[in-house]
């Protein structure tokens, strides 16, 4: 029954730019630019959106472009509402992923205990979870008890396709299944849903149902019956799901289903997970916004003519800094941005940094290392640094064999560039936050030497191994090449985003960055003189399923061994995490 229904749904894929030009013509071009700012076009219904903050609540201390903290963000939203929104409406939305990426979240036990307090100071109208709230039981339990059932967010925490398993093993929704409400000024009737992408690595305290399957359930039919098209002005679908999804098309499947019940409603999407700035046109009445990562961006979206047949959409990606915040909120001076509540949150962040010792200096990074703005072969590429100088420092806690060794990591385990300057306790979490265990398998060299190439083969879908942006593999180089490459003396480097409205979405014109594709995995190889036929193949436990698959696939082709590889062949290797090894390496530079 389900399958038959499924086959009948036409999957709407990403709309080519220009398809709806008649409707959207000029949507981004109007509006006055001041300096190299591009202004926001405030409309009747306005949104500010964050996503994938990953603990970055204390600003980017080494990057002025993203130099505002969570307190400044709170001041901004307050002032923006007061000075720019007037009798229109503003909704504040977050789409999850709040752990793994910064000391403020990751240096505490349990992870996120202090960052959650700070994050929840923002007055979100709609919020939800990402996959990083579901990797560990601790994260899931914290999210549920600190945020989902928090009175402050009553009804506002929405998770349409995720369930929580209580201490008593009861299965309950991870928040509201949906939210129906009226905006405070223009009284728009809003029906909101939230979907997490089909994440199947959740711990035992959570269950994720694929969005399209969830929409076949009775509760959704009941919602449709209670809130038919005539009773709804705008449907909001916000969730931890990319708005451009060239591989799975999950959001397009959701859109196709919703359109069968709501053919004439405005449907506005807010997405996340792939860490990019993005804006997509779904049809004449529907667009999607995605607001980057790591508190580098506040996404802005407005809809005018909301109740007409030709609503007008406008979007901007606001750099997360006080200049941008002051400019767009319309205060005269940067100092006028501060509110008492925002300032209190900023000082609380300062106290947490102190308590967690995040600014204590471990060493000095002599020059910057980049994930994708330098090629892999460059000495300025971080993966090159890791495979050449850092991973070889790994010492096993379980074996002291002198066998040849391969150490393979997924590139997605590295989360940020490493900047020249002080290497602090925070830097370790920023670059490599995961405490993934090292495992190993003893295998013939003839298999080991082909695993990386197999895992990096473009024909194989390995979407969860590379950095989040690289999930857009085919799209990204096109996107970055399609907008003019800006190189103006005096401008700082930053985003030049191409989206379905064009190249002018960023609130500030920046000098463009180069982009070089990143493979799924990289490795260091140590072949001993007089090497024997069998080697130690070391990898993160997180990627064990992919390594086993690769070994079996390669062996099928090469017929090197007569058995199938399984988890039972993998053993604990032990040793320090990549972040700790990097710290040791940087420390050793001071001594040399
Ligand atoms: N233990 C882990 C967990 C995750 N990763 C990497 O992070 C990616 C997911 O990050 P998002 O912010 O996009 O949700 C995942 O695909 C892995 O690349 C990891 O390396 N180790
Ligand atoms: Zn994320
Ligand atoms: Zn995610």
Automatic annotation (TrEMBL):
GO cellular component, one term: cytosol
Record-annotated Putative 5'-nucleotidase C-terminal domain positions: 368-548
Transmembrane segments: none
GO molecular function, one term: hydrolase activity
Domain of life of the organism encoding this protein: Eukaryota
CDD domains, per the entry: MPP_YHR202W_N
SUPFAM superfamilies per the UniProt record, alphabetical: 5'-nucleotidase (syn. UDP-sugar hydrolase), C-terminal domain, Metallo-dependent phosphatases
One GO-annotated biological process of the protein: nucleotide catabolic process
Pfam family, one: NadN_nucleosid_C
Gene3D superfamilies cross-referenced by the UniProt entry: 3.60.21.10, 5'-Nucleotidase, C-terminal domain (3.90.780.10)
Domain Calcineurin-like phosphoesterase as annotated: residue spans: 46-276
PANTHER family associated with the record: 5'-NUCLEOTIDASE-RELATED, ADL392WP
Protein name: LAFE_0A00606g1_1
Species, as recorded: Lachancea fermentati (Zygosaccharomyces fermentati)
């Amino acid at each position: 029954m389900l399958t038959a229904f499924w086959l009948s749904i036409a999957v709407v894929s990403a709309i080519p730019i220009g398809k709806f030009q008649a409707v959207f013509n000029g949507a981004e071009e109007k509006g006055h630019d001041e300096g190299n700012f591009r202004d926001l076009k405030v409309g009747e219904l306005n949104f500010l959106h964050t996503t994938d903050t990953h603990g970055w609540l204390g600003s980017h201390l080494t990057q002025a472009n993203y130099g505002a903290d969570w307190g400044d963000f709170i001041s901004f939203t307050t002032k923006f509402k007061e000075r720019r929104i007037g009798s229109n409406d503003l909704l504040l939305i977050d789409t999850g992923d709040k752990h793994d990426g910064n000391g403020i979240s990751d240096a505490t036990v349990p992870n996120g205990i202090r960052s959650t307090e700070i994050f929840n100071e923002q007055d979100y109208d709609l919020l939800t979870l990402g996959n990083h709230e579901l990797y560990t039981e601790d994260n899931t339990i914290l999210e549920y008890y600190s945020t989902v059932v928090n009175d402050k967010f009553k009804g506002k925490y929405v998770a349409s396709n995720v369930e929580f398993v209580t201490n008593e093993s009861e299965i309950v929704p991870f928040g509201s299944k949906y939210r129906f409400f009226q905006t405070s000024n223009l009284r728009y009737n809003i029906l909101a849903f939230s979907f997490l992408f089909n994440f199947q690595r959740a711990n035992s305290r959570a269950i994720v149902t694929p969005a399209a399957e969830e929409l076949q359930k009775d509760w959704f039919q009941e919602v449709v019956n209670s809130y038919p098209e005539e009773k709804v002005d705008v449907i909001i679908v916000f969730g931890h799901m990319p708005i451009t999804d060239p591989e799975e098309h999950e959001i397009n499947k959701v859109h196709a289903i919703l359109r069968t019940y709501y053919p004439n409603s405005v449907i506005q999407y807010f997405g996340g997970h792939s860490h990019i700035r993005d804006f997509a046109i779904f049809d004449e009445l529907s667009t999607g916004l995605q607001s980057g990562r790591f508190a580098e961006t506040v996404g802005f979206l407005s809809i005018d003519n909301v109740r007409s047949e030709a609503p007008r959409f406008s979007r901007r990606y606001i750099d997360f800094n006080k200049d941008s915040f002051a400019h767009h909120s319309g205060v005269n001076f940067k100092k006028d941005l501060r509110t008492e509540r925002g300032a209190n949150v900023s000082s609380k962040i300062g106290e947490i940094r102190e308590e967690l010792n995040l600014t204590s200096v471990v060493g000095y990074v002599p020059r910057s290392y980049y994930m994708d703005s330098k090629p892999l072969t460059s000495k300025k590429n971080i993966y090159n640094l890791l495979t050449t100088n850092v991973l070889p420092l790994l010492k096993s806690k379980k074996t002291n064999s002198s066998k040849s060794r391969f150490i393979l990591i997924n590139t997605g385990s590295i989360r940020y560039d490493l900047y020249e300057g002080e290497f602090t306790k925070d830097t370790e979490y920023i670059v490599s936050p995961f405490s993934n265990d090292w495992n190993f398998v003893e295998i013939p060299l003839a298999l080991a030497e082909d695993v990386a190439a197999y895992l990096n083969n473009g024909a194989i879908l390995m979407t969860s191994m590379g950095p989040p942006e690289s999930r857009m593999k085919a799209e990204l180089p096109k996107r970055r090449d399609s907008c003019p490459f800006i190189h103006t003396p005096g401008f700082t480097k930053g985003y030049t985003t191409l989206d379905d409205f064009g190249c002018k979405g960023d609130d500030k014109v920046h000098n463009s960055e180069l982009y070089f594709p990143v493979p799924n995995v990289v490795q260091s190889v140590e072949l001993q003189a007089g090497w024997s036929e069998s080697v130690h193949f070391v990898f993160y436990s997180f990627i064990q399923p992919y390594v086993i698959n690769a070994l079996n696939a390669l062996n099928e082709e090469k017929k090197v061994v007569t058995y199938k590889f399984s988890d039972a062949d993998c053993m604990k290797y032990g040793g320090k995490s990549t972040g700790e090894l990097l710290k040791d390496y940087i420390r050793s530079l001071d001594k040399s």
